[in-house]
Amino acid sequence: MKTFAEFGLEPKVLQAITELGFEESTPIQSKAIPIALTGSDMIGQAQTGTGKTAAFGIPLVNKIPVTEDRIVALIMTPTRELAIQVSEEIGKLTRYKGLRSLPIYGGQEIGRQIRALKKRPQIIIGTPGRLLDHINRKTIKLDDVQTVILDEADEMLDMGFMEDITSILSLVPENRQTMLFSATMPPNIRKLADQFLKNPEHVSVIPTQVSAPTIDQAYIEVHERQKFDALSRLLDMESPELAIIFGRTKRRVDELSEALQKRGYSADGLHGDLSQNQRDNVMRKFRDGSIDVLVATDVAARGLDVSGVSHVINFDLPQDPESYVHRIGRTGRAGKEGTAWSFVTPRELDHMHFIEKVTRHKIAKKPLPSIAEAIEGKQRVTAERILDAMESESVNEFKAIAIQLLEQYDSVNLLAAAIKLITGEKKDVNIDLTPEDPIRAKKRRPDVRTNGRRFSGSSFGGGNRTGSGPRGRGEGGSRGGYGGGGYNRDRGSSGSYNRDRDRDGGKGRGGYSGGGEARRSRPSTDE
Ligand SMILES: Nc1ncnc2c1ncn2[C@@H]1O[C@H](COP(=O)(O)OP(=O)(O)OP(=O)(O)O)[C@@H](O)[C@H]1O
Ligand SMILES: [Mg+2]
Question: Reaction(s) catalyzed by this protein (predicted)?
Fold first, then answer.
């Protein structure tokens, strides 16, 4: 891989990269940075956790003159948390250069954003709805924007942001540079690319396997009613450093996080019905480790980068294979190891196999952890804590009593009693979760709009690594054997899905909430 010095970046940008601890570029960075530096439009695709943010962030901060005092760059993200995170990463990259970047997202007091805009940031990172709000108020002007980046572009489309993105981009000068990035590129992204990008370079680093290879994936077959016990045994057995548990609906997330708290786990929930303050608090606690289990809807599936996430657990299977890839991609990032477990009810087995096929990865079936394994796991953690304390903390002041006890009692009995006390008993509270319906892989008719290729597998790169020109990749991709069987991601139909967009503009979008059961939640994202 290339070192960052080889890209001919400004010394101040290089210095910031060094400070971030990046020694060499990741594959997507070494391909994308030189192209982005030429000013060309780009579609960038690479696995989760492989540094796409810096792949667009580095060339962006390199190109903006520090004397600039207008908004010259716009980054759009599907969720508020992601806007904040990307803004922070851009902030780090521009630490020495001193550019100003500002996140703009729904749920935060608009007056505060207006005051921050007066400081003349050059880079705005925002969610589409709130951006439009500012544009309409004329507190954000896009006349001078030269670079636009759509992070997780496919998700923004999927959430129904096409119209908003179109309105926003119509206000940006034509001679701009536009770049799209995501780990997945469903066929319909081409429509967006054709409309908004000019002769884009396709930069794609997708090996045969879609999900990051550093993630150990497994599933457990459980009945809906067994899920909570399975979860607590799994948490006890594995003792994750940090875990994200995905639930299908907001109600599920609320019930599950409360149940985990009652059982004595340090958990909290994240979904789109919480106030922005609550959302910020939960994310802060998770990032600083004051909670170690985050229970979330798909609002947390995309882009979030929290170091130390060792486990992702799909308490409920996601509706589509892309969501599976993004969810499990919250672990195993930047080359680290991670573990992803999924609970699958008997009626969802077909759906699990569908996910395996589309993601081209065999997922191992594992047995439900036994009570004995759970207990053993907890005891192991206690033993590790004791050994850690012995090595890293001063225990001198406890030695006198230890010697005294050892003179009087059997050492094994003593230590066993201490381990028992430290391990603690699981609080025996009754947990009753409202059952969720199983997800089923529906039979569907070929989709007219996409020639029946909605899940052709090209969403994940189709095995083609690099292409050039707008049609260089995945064209005419085979359906990979998913024929007519399969899958319906169409939320408007069949009442199965309410994307639960938490738009504070209050503008309902036809087809996104219609017919859905109110409790079915989707990304619950932004705006
Ligand atoms: N060259 C590098 N060397 C080491 N670490 C890096 C490098 N580039 C990025 N990282 C780190 O890797 C992690 C993942 O990066 P990032 O969030 O950009 O991934 P991503 O490809 O956007 O993933 P996702 O598809 O989930 O959004 C971050 O913590 C980032 O700081
Ligand atoms: Mg990302």
Answer: ATP + H2O = ADP + phosphate + H(+)
Dihedrals phi, psi of 131, to nearest 5 degrees: -60, -45
Tokens of 257: 């996080």
CA of 411 to the centre of ligand 1 (A): 48
CATH code matching the domain that covers 4-204, chosen among 3.40.830.10, 3.40.50.300, 2.40.50.140, 3.40.50.2300: 3.40.50.300
334 lines ligand 1 (CB under 6 A): yes
Question: Is 103 near ligand 1, meaning CB less than 6 Å away?
Answer: no
Which pLDDT tens digit goes with each residue over 291-314?
999 999 999 999 999 999 999 999
Question: Would the CATH topology of 4-204 be identical to that of 211-439?
Answer: yes
Report the separation in Å between the CA atom of 152 and the middle of ligand 1, taken as the mean of its atom positions.
14
Give the global pTM.
0.85
Ligand 1 pocket member 474 (CB < 6 A): no
Could you tell me the residue ranges of all domains in the chain?
4-204, 211-439
Could you give the ipTM of this predicted complex? 0.99
Report the residue count for the chain: 527
Whether ligand 1 lies within 6 angstroms of the CB of 186 is answered as no
CATH architecture of 211-439: 3-Layer(aba) Sandwich (3.40)
